[in-house]
Each structure stands twice: as structure tokens, then as C-alpha cells.
Amino acid sequence: MTEKVPPMAWKLQIDAPVNSRSRRATVIITDDNGQTLVTDRADLTSIRERRELVKRVRIHLQNRKLATRGLAPELDQAWAALVDKLRTQETDRSPTDESTVFDRVQYLLANEGAAAIYSNEQ
Question: pTM, whole model, 2 decimals?
């Protein structure tokens, strides 16, 4: 008789550093009630590290008798969505009073072109 494994009863969340030298992100797996099941860290920009992370997390989930089918695609999709979100935020961000001159020039070049930099000169 084959032991029945319950359907996917976990959720994956990625906490990635923004504006940090560290490229390692924390992956958090929670149950349906939001309780943490397992956490791990990896450089998710690396396919190899994502695969190694999946192997490590899979062991913990299987020990809890939870289904692990779909873990790798779920991680890849969550990572791609986060990368897209961060890239969009970076391009949409407008300079603030705390911005450096470099930030303001980069913003003008990206959004208005080089002519905007010299538009105030007489």
C-alpha cells in the first residue's frame, strides 16, 4: 500500500536584499496558517544554487510528509516575479531630495533623455 501524500500545503516567500552587497536571498516556506516550516538562504541569481536550495528544502518538507511536487517551478516563478518587480521599481523611482546628483542625472537620462540635463541652461 502506498502512503498518500497530502497536496501542496505550503507557500513560498522570498525576502531579497535591496541595495545590499549580499546577493543571498532568504526563502521562507510557510504552512497554510502562516507558520514557518523552513527557511534557507541562497544566491537565487544562480540556477545551480536554486537547484541546491530546492534539494535542501525538499528534504525538510518530505520529513513533514508534505508534497514537494512543483517546488522548483514555484521557486523559479517567484524569483522571476521578484526580479521583474524590483526592476520596475528601479526604473519608476524618481529622485527625491535625499538623492545624489548622480541619481538625478541617471533618472533624467533614463526618462527624459540627454537634452533634459541641459534644458535649464541659457
Answer: 0.67
Report yes or no: 27 and 57 within 8 Å, Cβ to Cβ.
Answer: yes
- Grid cell in block for residue 10: 505550503
Sheet hosting strand 36-43, strand order edge to edge:
10-15, 24-31, 36-43
Strands (E), 1-122: 10-15, 24-31, 36-43
14: which residues sit within 8 A by CB, 6+ positions away? 25, 26, 27, 28, 44, 78, 79, 82
Q: How far apart are CA 65 and CA 100, in angstroms?
A: 52
Are 10 and 71 contacting, i.e. CB atoms less than 8 angstroms apart?
Answer: no
Judge residue 83's burial from the number of C-beta atoms within 10 Å of its C-beta, 0-12 exposed, 13-18 middle, 19 or more buried. Answer: middle
Average pLDDT by consecutive 10-residue portion of the chain (122 residues)?
61 81 87 93 94 97 93 93 79 61 67 60 48
Per-residue pLDDT, 48: 96
Contact 27, 13 (CB under 8 A): yes
